[in-house]
Q: What sequence folds into this?
């Protein structure tokens, strides 16, 4: 079978979405011809002429670029001979426009939904869900979902939200996970101090405020250090705070992330107190588990429930700074490590996509 696969994220990019798409494509290529269309230079892909805007770009710029890339994809699909199309969203507007071309051709498409649009716009107060633009966006989302051959999403929470559009029978849960060829417990020497690691995109959904409060509360314990790696709009808040127990490593390439994690002792994941934060299952949590690190995360929600049920860490609300610090101190005393669970292996979970074609 010939498959057209669109994604704005693909290796050598280090984003979690790039890894998810890599494993889906790798699995599909076991039995099919898969043509990957993306905006980056990478081996074995078709590079689009236009590029989707980064998360750092303003809302208007991102919207404009999503529409332009959507127009390019629309015409590429019209002249493409694939039998099925896979769209990795976001970008929402790009995927919606691409889906229109697929429908015109009378073909099938699969929608892989990792972030919930337009609900993200509503949650961030950018648009009111009851306004005319909000109603139009909900109609677009409903149309996109109803015409999809199958829908893939990453958490039970997102599955529930999408089911509200009346498409529950075509939604399939394929969780994120860790690449067990890279993320595994090892014998690497640990950092000399008891190290807590917080890595990834430092964007609006990350609760940097909680991280800084925890750093302040632990500052008197000179044998504890917080390792931060990544980039994003909230990096400035971390650097401006100048907490003496935070060490910033910069942006790590994908190969360097597991090497760094294995040198740390505890993985931190602090998200904001909203729908996005509570329903998310951050990829960094899977990566911590893969490297055998106990996890401390906020807020309580689906990710925390699953981690606690497997005795792999503990979840808290963002205001429970004292309890978070107490847990970290106890972990320092016990020096816990865990065996990685193959339940969260991307190699295993990605096999499910074969059944959805």
A:
């Amino acid at each position: 079978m010939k498959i057209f696969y669109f994604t704005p994220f693909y290796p050598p990019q280090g984003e979690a979405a790039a890894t998810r798409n890599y494993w889906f494509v790798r699995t599909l290529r076991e039995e099919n011809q898969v043509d990957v269309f993306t905006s980056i230079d990478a081996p074995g892909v078709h590079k689009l002429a236009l590029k989707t805007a980064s998360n750092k770009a303003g809302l208007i710029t991102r919207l404009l670029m999503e529409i332009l890339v959507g127009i390019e994809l629309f015409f590429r699909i019209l002249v493409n001979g694939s039998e099925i199309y896979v769209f990795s969203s976001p970008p929402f507007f790009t995927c919606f426009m691409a889906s229109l071309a697929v429908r015109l051709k009378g073909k099938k498409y699969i929608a892989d939904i990792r972030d919930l649009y337009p609900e993200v716009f509503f949650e961030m107060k950018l648009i009111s869900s009851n306004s005319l633009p909000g109603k139009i966006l909900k109609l677009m989302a409903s149309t996109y979902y109803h015409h999809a051959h199958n829908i893939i999403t990453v958490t039970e929470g997102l599955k529930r939200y999408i089911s509200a559009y009346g498409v529950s029978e075509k939604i399939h849960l394929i969780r994120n996970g860790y690449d067990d060829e890279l993320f595994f417990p090892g014998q690497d020497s640990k950092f000399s101090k008891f190290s807590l690691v917080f890595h990834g995109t430092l964007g609006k959904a990350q609760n940097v405020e909680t991280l800084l409060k925890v750093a302040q509360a632990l500052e008197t314990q000179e044998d504890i250090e917080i390792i931060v790696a990544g980039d994003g709009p909230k990096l400035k808040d971390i650097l401006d705070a100048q907490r003496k127990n935070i060490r910033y490593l910069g942006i790590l390439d994908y190969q360097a992330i597991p090497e760094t994690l294995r040198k740390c002792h505890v993985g931190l994941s602090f998200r904001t107190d909203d729908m996005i934060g509570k329903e998310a299952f951050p990829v960094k949590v899977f990566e911590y588990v893969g490297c055998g690190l106990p996890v401390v995360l906020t807020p309580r929600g689906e990710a925390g429930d699953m981690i606690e049920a497997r005795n792999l860490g503990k979840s808290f609300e963002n205001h429970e700074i004292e309890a978070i610090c107490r847990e970290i101190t106890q972990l320092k005393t016990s020096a816990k490590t865990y065996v990685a669970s193959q339940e969260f292996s991307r190699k295993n979970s990605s096999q499910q996509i074969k059944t959805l074609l």
